Each structure stands twice: as structure tokens, then as C-alpha cells.
């Protein structure tokens, strides 16, 4: 009893302190606490979305699994895409739960779930396929926690900051999220060189610190409404979006005699079934009293146009990320003397100008958009992005790095100019009591775009390679002593295998010829040539550039269409009172007070 009494007293004191925090209005410095904490949250969540991409070779070596062996490509895809699919599907649900039960409460729980999943990932006790399944399943749990963070962070900031500073705050938060995707590539390369488990351990101290900090410092500043959970809407949306994105994922894998799987009955069933369920979801949302997906928000022009632009830009950005990795790792870095095993790390380093552009332009454009409006900056940013894609089209495969870095910087600056004002415009255009679901909807479009980009741009690249790579590869191998039958067999393999080999930092020729012992029967000089730094890059540079032309041409078109959507967002009217104090929520109590901000 004596031991129990102090514990009961401590619990009572903690509850009393929590009650005092809830009842005490946040001070003028609270908004900066909210900004720093939510920025940390989205940074770690988005870094972990991409950190495994560069570190996959080390991870699979650590668990004793060849990801490119027959039947193992599925493990590879789900390690990358499982996190993205969960993020795309769940953010709206979790944003709606934040509106109902408290945005800070759901956000705090997200940090805790993320921390626990990070520990479990680093302690993988299994090997081979079982070890890969452990990692995939816990990555899904980690994505669940990360979705809680990203779904509610923008809403927490919108509640905490007055309208005159909101663009700056959301700009910092949004650009940090985008930069995290590219910083994850660099961090993955650095940590994988130490130990594959370090890739997951790095998230543990950050997420634990963020968990403790958020529970102690963040507080609810908006009145939540309990409401009812839209179970049918949740079920049809999660099922439809999950099945659709999974179908797109398997569509890039070969099927039968085709380079891609778009003719597979399973893929077609997934695509059709996913679209059907999403149509059912749309019908459900117009009939339930408290829908999870507020379709009525699309009547707000700034909200609809901003989300359309964000979706297309996310697709283009994701395609850029993956194509640059393949370009650098498979061709440019080996041509400049880098070993294939070292290319993942250096690819992350050489892509830093892109991240630098994000970090410079995001906060600046967010601050300026608070004064001059979102439309000008977001639209011009997308025009700059389109121009950088056209510039990349004109660059040779074996480029001068100064020109290449300048184009990456330009792309990052353009995306930074767009993302911060666009997010501020979206979040500022909805009533305060819908900010959680609006933040989730915005994140859904952005995360879905990243997942879609893999299917879209890998398919475009594979289609471009399929027309010319087999003949080029077959003749090149025969010219260096590989028997005609073996050369034909290797050249007939799906181009996606070659892409994944370069993506993982493997020597594609060594991988394709190593298993059959072909290399052992060749002369030493021929073997050295085939597995050297220049044979494969020079061989595929022509077919690869043909594929890049298609990819970057489509990306430029998407950026220009996004710019048009951004320009049509109209003169923006904010849904909340610009003069309110940070942390107050008049609209949740008295209804939205629509006052014109007189901004374009």
C-alpha cells in the first residue's frame, strides 16, 4: 500500500498538470513550439519514406536475401511502396479522427507508434524471406504512425498561427517534408555503409524525443467535435485506394512475354476494382451525415485547384527522384570511375542541389505569399519546374555536372516556390473545424502522387527501353565473347530487371551473367571489360536517353498543366477571420466567417 500511494499521487499530479495546460491559453511563443515539433515530425516521417531506397542493398544483404532473384522482386517493391501506400490511404482517415478527437492527441499517438515501429525494424530476428516480411509489416506500422504525424501537422500549425504568418509556417513545414524525401536518400547511403540496422535505429532517438516533447508541450487549440466515424466511407476508400495502388505497383512487373504487367488479369482486376470502389466511396460520401472525405470542400476553388496541382506535381517529383537515381547510379557515376557498390551513397550526395533549392525557396516564398498571395508564387514555381525538366531533356547522358546541378537547383527552387504557398492556400481556404480532414486530403493527393509516379514513370521508362535495349545489349555482349544463345537470353530479360539492378547499386552485367557461370568461361580481358565501369553505361546510354526523353517530356507537361490549375485558383477568400489571435477558433464555435483577403 505504501508503494501504491505515491504512484497514485504522482498520477493525480500529472492529470492535474495536464488539466491546467488544457485550461491555460497558449502564450505568444506557443506557435513556435508547434512549428518546431511538427516540423521534426514530418521530417522523420518523410525521411523514412525514402531512407530505405538507397539502403536496400545493405538491408537485403544483412538478412541474406537477393532481391533480384526470381520471386523476390515483390519483397523489393513492397519495401519501397508499402510505406507509400499506407500513407496515401490512411491520412484522410487520421485527419478526420483528428478533427473528432483532437489533432494533437492523434499527432502525439503517431509519434509513439512511429518510435515503437522503428525499434521493431532494427531488431529484425529473421533471415531471408521471413526477415523481409518482418521488415515490410513493421514498415506498414511505421507508416501508420507517420500518417498520424503528416495528417495533422498542417492543421495544428493552421490553428496555432494567425493568417498573416501562416504561409511562412506551413512553408517551413511543407518544404521540410519534401526535403526529407531527398535527405532520406543521403542518410540511407551514409548509414547503410555503417550497418543496415542503423538505417532504422536513427529514427528511434528522434521519434522518442519527439514523442516526449509533443506530449509535454503541444495542446489542443481548436474545439473538436466527437461526431461519428464514417465506417462505410473508411472501408470503401481504404479498400479502393489500396487495391488501385497495388495494381499499379504490380503493373510495372513483367507478365508473360510483356515487359510490363498491364495486361495481367490480376492487375486489370485491381485497377477496375479499385476505381469501382472509389466510385462507391464517392456516392457514400454524398449520403452520410458526417463523411470522412468532405467532397463539398472541392466547391472551394482554391482547395480544388491547389490539390489538383499538388497531385500532378507529386507525380512529376516522384518520377524525377527515381529517374535521377537510376541515371546517376547506372550510368553517370560508373562512367566517372565510381564502383557500382558505392553509387547509392554518391547519388544521394550529387542530388543535394535539389534539396538545397527546396530549403531556400520554401520558407521565403511562404513568407512572401503571406503578403502578396499564393497564386503568383505557386504558378511561377511550376513554370520554373517545367523549364528545368525541359533543360534536363537537352542534357546529354554523360553530362557536365555543373549544368546538371544548376538544373537540379532550379527544379528545387521551383518546387519550393510552389509547395509552401499552395499548402497555405489550401489550408487557409477551409473552415477551421475541417482543417484536420483538409490536411489529410491534401496529404492523400501528395502521397498518392508519389506512389503513382513509380508506376507511371517506371512504365514509361521500361517502354522506352523495351524497344531498343534488347538488340543493343545482345549485340554488345556478343561483341565481347558472350555466346549468342546466352547473349540472346540475357537481352530477352525484362528491362525492369536491369533498372532494378542499377537502382540497387549492382553491376547489371555481373548480375545478369554471374549466375550461369558465363563470366568464368571468358578471357580475363573480356571479363574485365564486361564488368568494368564503362561497358554497361556506354551500352545503354542511347536506349536510356530515349526513355528519359519520354519521362521528362511527360513530367514537363504535368508541371505546365499544374501551373494552369494553380493560375485558375482565383482570388482567394480565407475561410477564417484573419484578425483572430493564434490559437483561437471562432469558426469552430460560431461558423466560418468568410472575409476576403484581397489576395490573388
UniProtKB/TrEMBL annotation:
The chain crosses the membrane at residues 40-63, 75-94, 106-123, 135-157, 169-192, 198-218, 230-252, 264-284, 305-333, 345-364, 376-395, 401-420, 451-469, 544-565. It is found in: Cell membrane. Residues 575-588 have a biased composition (Basic and acidic residues). The keyword Transmembrane applies. GO terms for biological process: response to antibiotic. InterPro entries: MFS (IPR011701), MFS_dom (IPR020846), MFS_trans_sf (IPR036259). Gene3D superfamilies: MFS general substrate transporter like domains (1.20.1250.20). Residues 575-600 are annotated as: Disordered. It is a multi-pass membrane protein. It comes from Streptomyces fodineus. SUPFAM superfamilies: MFS general substrate transporter (SSF103473). Keywords: Antibiotic resistance, Cell membrane, Membrane, Transmembrane, Transmembrane helix, Transport. Residues 34-509 form the Major facilitator superfamily (MFS) profile domain. Pfam families: MFS_1. GO terms for cellular component: plasma membrane. It comes from the Bacteria. This is MFS transporter. Its main location: membrane. GO terms for molecular function: transmembrane transporter activity. The keyword Membrane applies.
Amino acid at each position: 500500500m505504501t508503494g501504491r500511494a505515491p504512484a497514485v499521487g504522482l498520477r493525480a499530479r500529472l492529470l492535474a498538470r495536464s488539466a491546467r495546460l488544457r485550461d491555460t491559453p497558449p502564450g505568444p511563443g506557443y506557435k513556435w513550439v508547434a512549428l518546431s515539433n511538427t516540423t521534426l515530425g514530418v521530417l522523420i516521417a518523410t525521411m523514412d519514406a525514402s531512407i530505405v531506397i538507397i539502403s536496400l542493398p545493405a538491408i537485403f544483404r544483412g538478412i541474406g536475401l537477393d532481391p533480384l532473384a526470381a520471386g523476390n522482386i515483390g519483397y523489393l517493391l513492397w519495401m519501397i511502396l508499402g510505406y507509400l501506400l499506407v500513407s496515401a490511404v490512411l491520412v484522410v482517415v487520421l485527419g478526420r479522427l483528428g478533427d473528432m478527437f483532437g489533432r494533437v492527441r492523434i499527432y502525439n499517438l503517431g509519434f509513439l507508434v512511429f518510435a515503437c515501429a522503428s525499434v521493431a525494424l532494427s531488431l529484425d530476428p529473421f533471415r531471408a524471406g521471413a526477415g523481409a516480411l518482418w521488415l515490410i509489416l513493421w514498415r506498414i506500422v511505421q507508416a501508420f504512425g507517420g500518417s498520424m504525424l503528416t495528417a495533422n501537422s498542417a492543421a495544428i500549425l493552421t490553428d496555432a498561427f494567425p493568417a498573416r504568418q501562416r504561409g511562412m509556417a506551413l512553408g517551413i513545414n511543407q518544404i521540410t517534408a519534401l526535403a526529407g524525401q531527398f535527405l532520406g536518400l543521403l542518410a540511407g547511403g551514409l548509414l547503410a555503409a555503417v550497418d543496415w540496422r542503423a538505417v532504422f535505429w536513427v529514427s528511434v532517438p528522434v521519434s522518442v524525443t519527439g514523442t516526449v516533447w509533443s506530449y509535454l508541450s503541444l495542446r489542443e487549440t481548436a474545439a473538436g467535435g466527437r461526431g461519428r466515424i464514417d465506417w462505410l466511407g473508411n472501408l470503401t476508400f481504404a479498400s479502393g485506394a489500396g487495391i488501385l495502388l497495388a495494381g499499379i505497383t504490380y503493373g510495372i512487373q513483367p507478365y508473360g512475354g510483356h515487359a510490363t504487367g498491364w495486361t495481367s488479369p490480376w492487375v486489370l482486376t485491381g485497377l477496375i476494382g479499385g476505381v469501382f470502389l472509389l466510385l462507391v466511396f464517392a456516392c457514400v460520401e454524398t449520403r452520410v451525415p458526417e463523411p470522412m472525405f468532405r467532397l463539398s470542400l472541392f466547391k472551394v476553388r482554391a482547395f480544388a485547384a491547389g490539390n489538383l496541382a499538388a497531385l500532378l506535381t507529386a507525380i512529376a517529383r516522384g518520377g524525377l527522384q527515381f529517374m535521377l537515381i537510376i541515371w546517376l547510379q547506372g550510368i553517370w557515376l560508373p562512367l566517372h570511375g565510381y564502383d557500382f557498390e558505392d553509387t547509392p551513397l554518391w547519388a544521394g550526395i550529387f542530388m543535394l542541389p535539389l534539396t538545397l533549392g527546396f530549403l531556400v525557396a520554401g520558407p521565403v516564398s511562404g513568407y512572401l505569399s503571406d503578403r502578396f498571395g499564393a497564386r503568383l508564387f505557386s504558378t511561377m514555381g511550376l513554370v520554373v519546374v517545367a523549364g528545368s525538366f525541359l533543360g534536363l531533356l537537352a542534357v546529354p547522358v554523360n553530362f557536365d555536372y555543373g549544368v546538371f546541378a544548376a538544373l537540379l537547383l532550379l527544379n528545387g527552387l521551383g518546387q519550393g516556390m510552389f509547395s509552401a504557398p499552395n499548402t497555405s492556400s489550401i489550408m487557409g481556404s477551409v473552415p477551421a473545424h475541417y482543417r484536420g480532414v483538409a490536411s489529410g486530403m491534401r496529404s492523400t493527393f501528395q502521397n498518392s502522387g508519389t506512389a503513382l509516379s513509380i508506376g507511371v514513370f517506371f512504365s514509361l521508362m521500361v517502354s522506352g527501353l523495351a524497344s531498343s535495349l534488347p538488340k543493343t545489349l545482345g549485340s554488345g555482349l556478343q561483341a565481347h565473347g558472350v555466346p549468342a544463345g546466352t547473349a540472346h537470353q540475357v537481352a530477352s530479360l525484362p528491362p525492369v530487371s536491369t533498372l532494378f539492378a542499377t537502382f540497387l547499386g549492382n553491376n547489371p552485367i555481373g548480375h545478369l551473367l554471374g549466375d550461369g557461370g558465363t563470366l568464368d568461361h571468358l578471357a580475363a580481358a573480356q571479363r574485365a571489360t564486361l564488368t568494368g565501369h564503362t561497358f554497361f553505361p556506354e551500352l545503354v546510354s542511347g536506349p536510356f536517353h530515349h526513355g528519359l526523353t519520354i519521362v521528362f517530356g511527360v513530367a514537363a507537361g504535368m508541371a505546365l498543366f499544374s501551373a494552369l490549375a494553380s493560375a485558375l485558383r482565383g482570388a482567394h477568400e480565407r475561410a477564417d477571420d484573419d484578425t483572430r489571435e493564434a490559437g483561437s477558433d471562432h469558426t469552430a464555435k460560431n461558423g466560418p466567417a468568410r472575409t476576403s483577403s484581397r489576395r490573388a
